[in-house]
């Protein structure tokens, strides 16, 4: 589906709210959108055992946020490399910015003309999220996400594309997951305030599989096509 105006999107939501899942579905409908997930970038660095990955994994294993200065540097260089900040196209950020400091840094990097023009909060009940995390399995090489009830792999516990084994994310244990939720809840209010002040924040509520996606798709069509 084509878009007449550039969509510069941020998906905001608690861990497990479905940001990655909604992103993949959106990219199938709007293939012209470039997507960047801070969590996927960090997990890839960990997989490759880079200095950044080693540093980030200490925080991620504890369910804490990676320091603002580190993540801002990573995203800045990635956006520069992929030229998402330079072209006039459409892009989608998942997981960044996550604090007000990061939001201000991103605005500084992009400049007024290129700022985020739609922030969508995925508002999912947190008890629903906890159930989903128990059923989440991932393919570490690609970041593809499955859920044994909602979107199971074709062959149990194997990636659909490579056939490689799926694993549990190390930060999906009950204790670490609770810390990630707490951290999200602490950061959410200032971040929402920041984007409401810019008049770009929309909240979509839904707990069941296909409630949020049609709303998200229509929102993007209405605003940008
Ligand atoms: P990140 O990877 O961003 O993790 P997160 O925000 O905790 O989000 P998740 O990936 O857990 O969940 P999701 O919302 O994408 O849900 P999903 O689609 O998988 O970050 C990880 C860590 O990296 C952070 O803790 C932090 O340490 C660090 N980090 C990252 N960015 C940072 C930043 N900017 N600053 C500092 N540190 C940063 O869905 C969840 C499950 O539910 C799946 O199994 C899925 O199949 C299923 N599901 C999805 N939608 C539905 C549905 N509608 N119905 C039923 N099941 C569903």
From TrEMBL:
PANTHER family: NUCLEOTIDE KINASE. AMP binds at residues 38, 43, 64-66, 95-98, 102, 169, 180. It comes from Australozyma saopauloensis. This is GTP:AMP phosphotransferase, mitochondrial. InterPro entries: Adenyl_kin_sub, Adenylat/UMP-CMP_kin, Adenylat_kinase_CS, Adenylate_kinase_lid-dom, AK3/Ak4_mitochondrial, P-loop_NTPase. GTP binds at residues 16-21, 136, 145-146, 209. The lineage of its organism: Eukaryota, Fungi, Dikarya, Ascomycota, Saccharomycotina. GO terms for cellular component: mitochondrial matrix. Residues 135-172 are annotated as: LID.
């Amino acid at each position: 589906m084509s878009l007449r105006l550039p969509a510069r999107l941020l998906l905001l939501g608690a861990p497990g709210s479905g940001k990655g899942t909604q992103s993949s579905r959106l990219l199938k409908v709007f293939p012209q959108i470039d997507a960047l997930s801070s969590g996927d970038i960090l997990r890839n660095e960990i997989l490759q055992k880079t200095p950044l990955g080693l540093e980030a994994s200490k925080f991620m294993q504890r369910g804490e946020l990676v320091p603002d200065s580190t993540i801002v540097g990573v995203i800045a260089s990635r956006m520069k490399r992929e030229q998402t900040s330079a072209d006039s196209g459409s892009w989608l950020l998942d997981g960044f910015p996550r604090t007000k400091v990061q939001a201000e840094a991103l605005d500084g990097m992009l400049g007024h003309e290129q700022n985020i023009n739609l922030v969508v909060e995925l508002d999912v009940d947190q008890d629903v999220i906890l159930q989903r995390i128990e059923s989440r399995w991932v393919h570490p090489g690609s970041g593809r996400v499955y859920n044994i009830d909602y979107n199971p792999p074709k062959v149990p516990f194997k990636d659909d594309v490579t056939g490689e084994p799926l694993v549990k994310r190390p930060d999906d244990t009950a204790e670490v997951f609770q810390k990630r939720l707490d951290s999200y809840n602490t950061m959410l209010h200032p971040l929402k305030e920041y984007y409401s002040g810019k008049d770009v924040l929309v909240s979509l509520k839904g707990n069941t599989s296909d409630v949020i996606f049609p709303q998200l798709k229509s929102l993007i069509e209405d605003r940008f096509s």
